[in-house]
Design goal:
Elements (H helix, E strand, L loop, with lengths): L8 H17 L16 H7 L2 E6 L4 H8 L17 E6 L2 E7 L4 H17 L7 E2 L14 H19 L2 H8 L9 H12 L3 H10 L12
Parallel strand pairs: 1-3
Antiparallel strand pairs: 2-3, 2-4
Length: 219
């Protein structure tokens, strides 16, 4: 799914504020104008926020139903064999996020950050169960295709800011010699530093106007 749906500057500021609030709740350093020392401790952040992470090989909606039971609504049964990168659900005072164990670490981290973005930014249509924005109207949910694209873009922006904070990335890029690196090398070094994929680092540099995003690269 594309994450290129435009987000207003005001909404982006709200997303950045949500990231800072999550970090503050966990007692983690807030993004500052200095180069990052390493990746955000995502597992610790989720634990402090009371979110249980379950890694599931070959994750599908059917597999999620087997694990989460009644938290997955019957209305989504038409998509039971759909492969999923991640899915979050709440019930009995517990919030759980499932993530596909087959994915490489950097992909799993981005998926978890993306699902956390949904959890903090978007309210479900009912207090318990699968977060209903995950479903289109006609599939048991309330989302239009346009609305779906928007919230996916917002969760994507949350994940990018959490894993690659704009202020910190700009400070890192300003280190003498770094801004002179080729786009590919800069993205590679940023990816290694922050434990994100090369594609995500490349896109982040592009979005922050720190390097030209190469044609044909995915996010």
């Amino acid at each position: 799914m594309s994450h290129d749906r435009p987000i207003s500057h005001e909404r982006l500021r709200q997303i950045e504020a949500s990231v800072c609030q999550a970090l503050a709740r966990a007692g983690l350093p807030l993004p500052v104008c200095q180069a990052p020392g390493g990746p955000v401790p995502l597992t610790m952040l989720l634990e402090v926020l009371g979110i249980e992470v379950i890694q599931v090989p070959d994750l599908t909606r059917r597999r999620a139903r087997e694990i989460l039971g009644p938290l997955i609504p019957e209305e989504s049964s038409t998509r039971e064999e759909e492969s999923l990168g991640g899915l979050m659900a709440a019930g009995g005072g517990i919030t759980r996020v499932l993530v596909r164990a087959n994915d490489i670490l950097t992909r799993r981290r981005f998926t978890l950050a993306h699902e956390l973005g949904h959890h903090l930014l978007h309210k479900p249509a009912r207090p318990e169960g699968i977060l209903r924005f995950d479903l289109l109207a006609g599939e048991g949910g309330d989302m239009t295709p346009e609305g779906m694209r928007l919230i996916e873009a917002e969760a994507h922006a949350f994940a990018a800011e959490l894993l690659m904070p704009a202020q910190a990335v700009r400070a890192w890029h300003a280190i003498p010699g770094t801004s002179q690196l080729s786009h590919g090398l800069a993205a590679s070094r940023l990816a290694s530093l922050l434990l994100v994929s090369l594609q995500a680092a490349s896109r982040r540099l592009h979005d922050l106007e720190l390097a030209a995003h190469q044609p044909g690269e995915a996010t």
